[in-house]
Amino acid sequence: MTSLAPVPSSAAPAACTSLESLTNLPAEHLLAGQQRVLEMVAAGRPLAETLTAIAEFSEEAIPSMMASVLIFDPESQSLRKGGYGRSLSPKFQEAIDGMKPGPDVGSCGAAAYRSERVTSRDVRVDPRWTPFVDFAAMHGIISAWSTPLKNAKGELLGVFGMYYGDTREPSKQDLRLVDHFVHLAAIAVDRWRQDAERERRATQDVLTGLGNRLLLQEVAARMAADPAYTDVTCALVMLDCDHFKLHNDLLGQRKADQLLQQVALRIRGQLGQVPLLARFDGDQFVAILPERNGAAQRRVEDLLVSLRTPLLLGDSPVTVTLSAGVVEWQPRSMPLDDTLMQAIEAAEVAKRLGRDRVVVFGDSERARITGNRIVTRVLRDALDEDRVEPFLQPIIRLADGRPSGFEVLARLRGGDAAGISPSVFVPIAEESDLIVKLGDSVLRFAFRTLAEQAEAFRGLTLSVNLSVRQLVREGLADRAAVMAREHGVAPERVVLEVTESQWLDVDSPARANLLALKEAGFRLAVDDFGTRYASLSLLQAVPFDHVKIDRSLTQQLALSPRGRALCEAGVAMARACQIPVTAEGVETADQAEALRAMGYDLGQGYLWSRPMPVGRVLAWLSRHPAA
Hints:
The protein is an alpha/beta fold and 627 residues long. The longest helix is centred in the first third of the chain and has 31 residues, at 172-202.
């Protein structure tokens, strides 16, 4: 809690006992009033409420006085209304709100400008009051005393204004009483500023200066509690930078941070004043716009157009595009988390549609989320009830047509789960921790199968896919090694496959897990190679034992010279690192022969077999022995 130590003003405050002679109030009453104000400050009561109590307290002490406390706003360099006694009308408060300090701006404006006390014995003849004579007469003001509020550093906090309906000048005793109230007001404003600064720091993103997730939660909570937002519809917008990880890899962390700052400035400059603009996570931003979907979509489209003008990073132009999701939101009736999920889903759809575009969350997106929730529930039940059935697909040596091993692929069985394709449930599992449980169950199955069917699988390997969520978990290599020991299986019998998209950043923390797995004896393979940003540096960064060329390249083999060139480039890159290569998605004998001639070692696809349960695999192996 902030200390309530005295805040220096233009003069030291007098003790209440010595003030008794200056007013008609007894010392006990003065002491109680001061204590009440300090308790309000300590309790964090609204500043306007505390300053009003001080103004009313001062009017009670000096019944002929009219009191006001103005707050200095450093951002707008103006005086804003703070607290007022009962003697001043609301019209006075509104008229003086926003006053700019100046040498000839009445007593309060001059006191703030000069940072010292200013007194006007008769405002009717004081040149500082010339522009405000009629205003003063309207409110019965003839003399005015104004004292600046300052903190311990001498910074301007505001102004305490005291007005009278007759001509008078302050005596020494008057000033002692004034300074007492000025001191209380300075404590209140300084405490409020410190609390506001702490809150600003807690809710501000350090890198971009925008708000952060905490501010989003606070703003949403305030809107949800505000009756003014009843039946009001606004728009929640998710802005996701396209390919920013690639920018990070190419530029380095420091310059990528500078680029993100530039993006934030462009977004803020284009959207202007909105209820909220915050950095949500990494290279994602979230905004609350006061419009409904149609107007919000046009506003965001204008933002996307503005970002197509390159940003300058030093002297180098860099273009960053955004994928945006927009969803209508009623703060009083729609939970923020549900709305955020919809905005994120819409932004992801924008990415899938080609990026640099806006997608408005509608019925189709809502149906997709509902479907995903159903699949998530079914998958969770299947995992809990041990209804995940791994299937195996053979991997064939192209040189002699014999099996080299099998890839283990998860399938669901029983009830509603049986009809759900892996292309549906695996991506959904990857969005949650269910993929960890699913991956661990498939890995455990591989060890159990190699142990229980040792004779049938002699000389064969089993390949298991690892998700990025598994790879970033601490102790992955240790857990896998324990499974191998428990089943009495040599780790090199298991090939762990990872997709290349996870390894754009060769310094990823997950790389340590890969190296630990390699050290423990497991074999490593890059899956879906050639579909994203593969490079020789990727293959050199981790000691992979195998490369799997994605089926999309295999399917292009016979379609065009370009398709054949891509297949040749994929195998050439792997060969340059002396790593064996598997072609996925092989469906015809002509494809298999062409791939073999190019230098591919292994093939996998429907030409040899679709994925099969273990029972059928044993029968298949009896017809297609490994040796």
